[in-house]
Q: What sequence folds into this?
């Protein structure tokens, strides 16, 4: 019975944490998950429990780090702090930003130039429905941005993709767009 509960708990956790994992997911986490399944199959429950705890810790550490990187992004956004914005964005030609109702901006320098223009405003941002997923090398956050600018309030849905670069979590994609209608169409 213990084995069934252990495996069921792990599989539920793994499904929640890996349903959108990229094909090139980190080898360490993948190998630990394979070792865990093998330990459960071999009924080595002590080893399985240890491996389960290692897998959970790796996932929790990455999730906490991506959550913190996302917090820093929105702090830079809300405080109109271009220097902090420069620190959170990653390097590479794959860096992209899609502001609401705008075309895709590609490359770090062009993305940062777009933020220089955006950060001229005065607004407050509150996040709702925040969801975070992370592996050891990449992660994403989806949320609803509630923005107040003077007398105007707006809501957009956002996706932020983070990548670990030189040991630090960096934003490589921000996409903000209109909130779907109630019917979802």
A:
């Amino acid at each position: 019975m213990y084995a069934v509960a252990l495996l069921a708990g792990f599989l539920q956790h793994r499904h929640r944490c890996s349903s959108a994992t990229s094909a090139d997911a980190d080898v360490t986490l993948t190998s630990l998950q394979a070792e865990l399944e093998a330990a459960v199959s071999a009924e080595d429950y002590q080893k399985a429990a240890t491996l389960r705890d290692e897998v959970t810790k790796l996932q929790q550490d990455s999730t906490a780090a991506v959550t913190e990187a996302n917090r820093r992004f929105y702090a830079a956004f809300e405080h109109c702090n271009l220097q902090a914005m420069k620190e959170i964005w990653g390097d590479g030609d794959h860096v992209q930003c899609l502001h609401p109702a705008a075309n895709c901006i590609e490359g770090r320098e062009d993305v940062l130039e777009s933020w220089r223009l955006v950060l001229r405003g005065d607004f407050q941002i509150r996040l709702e429905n925040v969801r975070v997923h992370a592996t050891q090398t990449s992660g994403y956050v989806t949320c609803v941005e509630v923005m107040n600018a003077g007398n105007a309030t707006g809501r957009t849905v956002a996706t932020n993709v983070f990548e670990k670069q030189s040991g630090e979590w960096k934003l490589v994609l921000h996409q903000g767009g209109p909130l779907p209608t109630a019917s979802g169409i």
